[in-house]
Structure formats: C-alpha cells, structure tokens
Amino acid sequence: MVTVITVDIGGTSMRAAAYSPESLQPLIRNKIPTTSAGEPVFERLIGLIQSVWPKDGEVRAISTASAGPLDPNTGFVFDAPNIPGWKNFPLGDKLKEVFPVPIFLGNDANLAALGEWKYGAGVGHQNLIYLTISTGIGGGIICNDLLLEGSQGLAAELGHITVLPDGPLCSCGKQGHLEAISSGPAIVNYVRQMLISGETSKLDLKEDFNAYDVSRAAKEGDQLAIRGYARAGKFLGQALASFIHILNPSIIIFGGGVSQSGALLFDPMFEKLNADIMHSSYLEGLKFAPAMLGDDAGLLGALALAHRKLQIT
Ligand SMILES: [Zn+2]
Q1: Ligand 1 centroid – CA 171 distance (Å)
Q2: pLDDT of residue 189
Q3: Neighbours of ion ligand 1 (CB under 5 A)
C-alpha cells in the first residue's frame, strides 16, 4: 500500500500519522512529548516517524507541520522558540539524510489553514482567513484557492500586526502587536498589571491564574476579567477590519483555546469590527466559524500539503 506520513511538531507534543491516499482516517498514529531530558528533539522526531512507518508498501512522502517561522521551500527553520536547539535549524535537510523520500514542510498555522480549507470549516471557500488564538496568535490565508506563503514562506503572521504603537512587548520582541494584547498570556498580563496598579478582582495576584481562569471569573461577573477580554476582543476586531480590507475573505475561521471564550471576546470584537470596516459590503455574507479539525489540524494540513505536492486530489 502507498502511504503518506504526516508530522505535527509543536512546543508541547509531536504527532505523526500514516495515511493511505483514499482516507482521512490514519492507518496508524502516535503522539509523544516534544522534549525529554537527555534526548535531542530531532532524535525523538526520527523515532516517532519510524513508529508509524508501514511494515510493507511504499512511503510516498513525509509532510511536516512545524512551529516557525520557517522556509517551506528549503525546510530551514529560522526560529522555533518553544523547541530547544531549533534556531537556524535545517530540518528538511536533516530529515532527508535519514529518510530517502520527498520531504515537505510548512508553518503549522499556515498548514492548519490549508487543512481547514480542504477538509474542515473552510470547504467550498476560495478566500479564507484562519486565526488561532492561544499562547500566541497564528494565522493562515487562502487566497483564490491557494495558500499564501510569500517569497520565503513567511507570510500570514497575522498575530504580529501592530494594533497599538508603543504598546505591550510581544513574544517576537517588538511592541504593540495583536499577540501582545489578545493572546491568552497577554490577557493574563493585562489583568495582573491592573491588579498591581490597585484594582480589585476575585483574581488574586498571589495566584498563578491563566486565561481560562480569567474567563471563568468574567463569566461570574468580575469586572476586571470582563475588561481584560473586552480589550483583547476590541483589538482583535481592529486587526480583523484591516485583514478584511486587504483580503476580502468569505470566511474567517477561529482556532485555539482563547477563541472558545465566546461572547466575552467576540461581542467586543464584532462591535469594533463594525465600527472600523470602511463599507458594510465587506461583511455581507462573510462567515465566522470555529475550526473543525481540532488536534488533527496540523496532521491534516500536512496531508493536504502532501496531496497538493504529489498531485493527489
Ligand atoms: Zn510580535
């Protein structure tokens, strides 16, 4: 049997699966923690791929979704902050040295967008924006049925649009990016800053609360927690208006844990989006949908990439 192996490399866990060309159900899959004391991540990755390698038949390709930024043409990872040792790391070349099959590689958020477009919430849409809001904010864009990669594969870093000049410091080292205001840790940071400045809340500075704890407090009526989410939603709406003006999509798909906080985030987002959009026609027929592929987004996005490269429909 002919098989495609797909891999999803994240900061916490790595997954791999083997697929036959006819099915979205993997023949075999496996998941391991990304790091383990004393063993380099790349060695663990090799073992993971070998664990799903079919006992008989041909492997057509290994297709990999990885934290980036990375160059999908060369397989060169510029920087994966959550993966120890993966700065200027030639992942594609190193995989080629071990496995004698074509290696395809893509940024995880870009491939999640491709997966949602081909198999998930974006089926039938030619122009799509995918936004994942969790520890960071990642993005992917489908434009006229093509994944927008840019000249070096670095396009669609939607979390790093500047929404507040001189605003909070972003994980990338620059200031005022959307990720620095609307990601989970950014919401927590804002609440902590307000507590330090003397505001009162049921959230306690002495405790190590996360974005989910803030959302729970907000749902119980805590005004500071509500404001933390409202601020995140407002800047998200501001950013979305710009994305929509540039790309004129027919659907925007939200993934990631923070996007599951519902009206807390989305009511302020829609209010700001409606205020900022330059003409209502941009919003006519525009759909907003939750991501459908869940934990499989990376694996299925990598599968979609392999099918495109191998010209399997
Ligand atoms: Zn940034």
Answers
A1: 6
A2: 97
A3: 160, 170, 172, 177
